[in-house]
Design goal:
The chain has 204 residues and is mainly alpha-helical. It has eight helices and no strands. The chain has one domain (3-200): Ferritin. The N and C termini lie far apart (40 Å).
Length: 204
């Protein structure tokens, strides 16, 4: 579906999307961090510049995480890393859709090429690599070397999301966006700890 058409669908179905996400939260596996969005959050149009920037930049940030995670699903050597990749993709894909619906409801632009380029300098540096370099490095590896690099890169990536979300909590106005930022902080800090534990294991 074209991106412009998808915006129309997202605006008209914003509340339904939020209810779906809330329902998914109740079915998550025990101990699995998952974001829960309230039904009223996407309909709220009160927002400030910090909310807009957060949504635009976090969409790009999440798109990078999903791209990496989807590669892991077919390339990971260990089941723990593969499961982590599936979980990241499953959680962040719906969050992207939610933030796109917010921007449309607020009358704000979706991120463009400029925002994608800016992310390389705002919370997207991973072991000194931008998104394209990170994907190329991962694509050149397999086995345990692939798993280790993925974990190292995703830890840096998650830290960037936590930093961005912390700013949003302090400076944002939209209650839904602030709630999402808090949930991202909790979920991704938990996954950072999980990934650091996997790296500490002798197999990796």
């Amino acid at each position: 579906m074209a991106r412009t058409a998808r915006i129309t669908v997202l605006v008209s179905g914003a509340t339904a999307l939020a209810l779906t996400l809330a329902g998914c939260a109740s079915s998550a596996e025990p101990g699995t961090p998952r974001v829960t969005i309230t039904a009223s959050a996407p309909a709220a149009t009160t927002h400030n510049a910090a909310d807009t920037e957060f949504a635009q930049m976090m969409i790009v940030h999440h798109e990078g995480a999903v791209e990496m995670a989807d590669l892991v699903v077919t390339r990971a050597a260990t089941e723990q890393v593969r499961t982590l990749g599936q979980r990241i993709s499953a959680a962040q894909g719906p969050e992207i859709a939610t933030m796109e619906s917010w921007l449309a409801a607020w009358g704000e632009d979706l991120p463009d090429a400029a925002e994608h380029g800016a992310m390389d300098h705002a919370g997207m540096d991973m072991n000194g690599m931008d998104q394209g370099e990170a994907m190329a490095a991962l694509d050149a590896l397999d086995g345990e070397a692939f798993d280790r690099l993925f974990l190292e890169l995703m830890i840096d990536h998650h830290r960037g999301a936590v930093e961005m979300s912390t700013i949003q909590v302090a400076e944002g106005e939209n209650t839904g966006a602030i709630e999402l930022a808090r949930d991202i902080i909790a979920a991704q800090q938990s996954e950072i700890a999980e990934m650091e534990e996997l790296l500490a294991e002798s197999a990796l």
